[in-house]
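Narrative of activities, Objective 1.

The group set out to show that a structural description can be obtained from nothing but a protein's sequence at a throughput compatible with the screening campaign. Below is one input-output pair from the validation batch, recorded exactly as produced.
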Amino acid sequence: MLAHQFAMESPMIQAEAVEAMEFSELANRYRVSGVPHTVVNDGKGNLIGAVPETNLLAEIQRALAD
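Output recorded for this entry:
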């Protein structure tokens, strides 16, 4: 949900929700071990579980700095 809210606020952010059981190949590629699992910049950042807005923002900033 939070990633979608970020995407609604900025045209530079895209968010998609994927059913891990239905798309197992995709889940395996990003090593999904729990849900929700947020992948940032094609795997440069990952968050597992529901996280506060500040954590997601920090992970996005960290992934962009790499």
